């Protein structure tokens, strides 16, 4: 495992992190580790959006269906939703 040192965090931030840690019944270190891990594992939505736009551009000449309407029609035809 690597070690990471974070310098120059303001006291208010540290106090909020301590409060979060206490609320989750863990140490400040464990809380920060969890926050960093969760942040690193969050999908890159900007990259996803660019890829979706790239794919949509390939079918720009074709009419696009509204997914809400398609889902609603599917539910209306499915007895499990009634």
Automatic annotation (TrEMBL):
Q: Which domain of life is it from?
A: Bacteria
Q: Where is the Antitoxin FitA-like ribbon-helix-helix domain?
A: 2-39
User: Gene3D superfamilies of this UniProt entry?
Assistant: Met repressor-like
- Region Disordered, as annotated, extends over 56-82
Q: Name one Pfam family in it.
A: FitA-like_RHH
Query: What is any one GO biological process for this UniProt entry?
Result: regulation of DNA-templated transcription
Q: Where is the composition biased (Basic and acidic residues)?
A: 69-82
Q: Per its record, how is this protein called by name?
A: Antitoxin FitA-like ribbon-helix-helix domain-containing protein
Q: Which organism is it from?
A: Limimonas halophila
Q: What is the lineage of its organism?
A: Bacteria, Pseudomonadati, Pseudomonadota, Alphaproteobacteria, Rhodospirillales
